[in-house]
Fold this protein.
Amino acid sequence: MGQSKTVWDNPAEIIRHQKPDHPVMAFAPQVLQDNARRYVAGFPGLVTYAVKSNPEEVVIQNLLAAGVRGFDVASPFEIDLIGRLAPSAARHYHNPVRAGWEIDHAVAAGIRAWSVDSRSELDKLFARVPTATDRGAVEISPRFKLPVLGAAYDFGSKFGATPDLAAELLAEVAKRGYTPSLTFHPGTQCTDPVAWESYIRVAAEICDMAGVRAVRLNVGGGFPSHRVMGVEPDLPAIFAKIGETAAEVFGESLPELVCEPGRGLCADAYALITRVKSVRDGSNVFLNDGVYGGLTELPIIGNIDRIQVLTPQGLPREEDLHPRVIFGPTCDSVDRLPGEMALPAAIEEGDYVIFHGAGAYSTVTNTRFNGFGAMTHATVMSLA
Ligand SMILES: *Cc1c(COP(=O)(O)O)cnc(C)c1O
């Protein structure tokens, strides 16, 4: 182990000086803050952060510094984490299924915004949640779903009421004296703004069916990160589509808009530095990290092809790309990345493969399965 620093220039400097044998998550606070400011300035409403995508305290702190004032919390742990780090921030408990004790915990912690997608869970809320606290009114947002559109991963098979049921729940919420709002989640890594457009149109229909004006409409997460070379997410187009569609379909009764991105905020602020353990018989590449570590998501939503290969001296290998199968370090045969990835022909044991945009659903899902996954963290000025 060589020189140690608190803040490195970039991933290449870490590689040159430390030659890490275990995976390193390189975090660029500046990138996170710049990105968060783009959301806060560009989204036509309140930006909240879905904590589950990356609950590192440095992430929460940098988001607060950049002006994020609300959080989507989905468990007692996340409720308490944000309560401690950001006592004055809004916390929306948008996990629509909760045990009784979890509801009681959240009430005691001062939660005033809930989502729901079933009658049984709504009855649990009615029984345990007061309609107002000393900090103000309590909001319940039925969550509805549509058939999947343009998302890399389908959330609708687990959560979301049909529009008909959502209308019934919304009417019931209003009748009981809670603040009626609506929410949806279009899926994750949605690159097409149309995903939001269709949901917002149906949200207006649900309000009509229920005869209720929604006070707020939460358009979920699902905002894309930069996973694929040459395909930059077009955030302004998505924000514009959301704002225009809502104004068109709701007119005078436009609800306040809220979004709750996870991946879109945090993913591109991290790069995962992995090391080549072996190039087996000159073909398959084995890395020191895989689907039980920082790359858990890749088999579910597809490869990150924004990768770089560096020598231990930190110099890029770019020439002569060849498709290779990439395996992770464990003895489990599912521990491989989907398909094949283009890697330089000269790649060899001891080289480093950097996966850019790896900050979401990675540090938090890393496991020590099979004795691997000794991931460390480093802070960098820049990811390039
Ligand atoms: C996971 C989740 C999000 C964040 O999803 P991303 O695709 O990471 O933006 C937002 N809202 C809810 C309710 C979620 O469960």
